[in-house]
Amino acid sequence: MGDRETSNHSDMTDFILVGFRVSPELHILLFLLFLLVYAMILLGNLGMMAIIMTDPRLNTPMYFFLGNLSFIDLFYSSVIAPKAMSNFWTESKSISFAGCVAQLFLFALFIVAEGFLLAAMAYDRFIAICNPLLYSVHMSTRLCTQLVAGSYFCGCISSVLQTSMTFTLSFCASRAIDHFYCDTRPVQRLSCNNLFVHKIVSFSLSSIIILPTVIVIIVSYMYIVSTVLKIRSVEGRKKAFSTCSSHLGVVSVLYGAVFFMYLTPDRFPELSKLASLCFSLVTPMLNPLIYSLRNKDVRDALSKLLEKKKFIL
Q: What positions does the domain G-protein coupled receptors family 1 profile occupy (predicted)?
């Protein structure tokens, strides 16, 4: 009886992504909404990378990190959006076993890498404001490269562990993943195994990833606020805070959505989907807007690039 009701992961050929539980009439509207958001993600993040690479004035550690942030946002949203949009037009909504593994692996890699990269950006702002005279010494090209490489490495290690833990489980007869992409929690719900140990390991792994990055960000900004408040001129304080406001906005949106998703009980999957939608698509769309609207250097570089294009045309 048990053999008929369960199947080992090696026998599973595909899964079904349930997606959003809405009436079929809304699928076209959701498709258009996803398409608009994804188009803005492509335009915003590719544009940000192009500006940073072409303008010599942006050849600084801050914009080196920002360029990598745009790269990460572009790729992890691309892991999810195309498949989610195609499922609005198909009846089966299936994703192959290999495709599900790849989607979970790549998304976990890039989302964890982004968390560590945001911590590196907070450290960069701490050095820039609290030790400006030693900024060029502390934030050397070598250190910046190591911080970015370390972010990707931590993302890769975390992704390997999460993916291997998830897909070594035995799955029940149901193949329906109650989500719009392959994520750890929805996939694990299909398992027939006792998930107590897996949940403990997943929680420990999440703590190891999230706590250090959050601590670095909080401590960095405690020192930044303390230093800025000692600046006597209002204009000086305003200028110092303006260099951090964009980063704080990005951190708030990303971590707020992540915490909301993982603190949402399993009995409310639709709330979890909304939170996932926020940090998988909305955050990558907002990040370039936040940095371009709040950053004078980026606005000036964009104006210069547009004027050059206009002159060529």
A: 44-291
